[in-house]
Design brief:
single chain, 450 residues, alpha+beta
Amino acid sequence: MGRVTRRLGELLHGVNQFDQERRVDASWEHGLSMARDSGAMNTAPRFYRDRSMIESIYVRLAIDVAMVDFIHVKLDEDNDVPIERIRSVLDQRLTVDANVDQTAFQWKFDMAMTMFKNEVAVLAPIETTYDIAQTDSFDIQSMRVGTVSSWYPRRVMVNLYDDREVDSSGQPINGGIRKDVLYEKREVCIVQNPFSGVMNAPNSVMQRLIETWAQQDAQNREIASGKLDMLIQLPYVTRGAKRQDMAQKRRQELRDQLSEDELGIGYIDASEKVIQLNRPINNQLPDQLDKLYQQALDQLGLTPAIMNGSASADELNAYYDRTIEPLCTAIQQEMKRKFLTQNARTRRHSIEIYRDPLKLIPIGELAEITDKVLRNAAVTANELRPKIGYFPSKDPSANKLMNPNMPVEDQVGGGVAATAAAGGAPDELDGELDGLEATLDEMISELGGG
């Protein structure tokens, strides 16, 4: 009776992990707090001063990650291949709406960008049907992406956004609030960037590129600040203190001339000479930027053709295999072990990655590939039609694995079934044959009798 009462109470009150006792409490004994996870390397978030040019790389990768679907499926008992899609609440969160603000696409994009910029992204349930601190069996009603604030041996402090936060009077706070929430590590997905050595390590190519870009930007701002950067060669030696005072006075006169004139025009003596220094004699920053940028693209499996959208199918396949698949696999494996219970995994439930391979094939090659897979009975026509933009056909033969270029009688499953498919019913045909046989018997008997 007590268990039933507790379950009903959880359902009625919508218990979730944002209860007050789960907030930061110094009296809790969680163990030593640290800036880095003891079980992972270099997981402390890094903050960049200037990401304006690097953002194009991150956005390209994040969009491609968000285009991949994560679906809840049931696997075959023997081959671990998906045989059925499960339209569960979890599947809806992963494919339709993650929370009240984000679609599944936006949520995956947010997750990828957080992973690139902070090295670790946390996928945290916000609203659940049961208290995740008391049971492993629950449905996720809402989830968000957060960052790690502090690491503990068994817990993790997550900084995330909550749209349901209220003030002291119980009224919703406009725009929500970001706050720190303490989770058990088993309750949230902690996804580490597999390319952290390229993107987030202190001396990685991406960090060196960011630093060099910041130097270039600072230099450009200095050039555009209005400074003249010039020297005045005076007609006398300025080694003595008196001559230096004269030089300072002369410099001040020139500054006054340029500042007081509305057109910025001044004059110098015929014996004086102006030396312009507005640009360095040899600036190697642009060359370093080009080299580092190309190194970053190479290490991430990107090419200029992929960035500008002119890549071939082979380039895109290599990019997806070497770059996007490792990112998606890290997300998929963490969601599989945290969002599915051991009982569900035992019953062959899984979260799998799905990406339509036909999207990368040019239209000129698609017809040839379509003919091959249909001719070899690899897929049915109705399985293929939605991939090329057509609705499934209502023709029953469109749901059969058959070669449309061969007679039905010559294919596996022909014979009587093939005759039936061609429009001849087996019972009617047998009746006609029996009638023909009886007629022949009568004719023979009459001839014999005559």
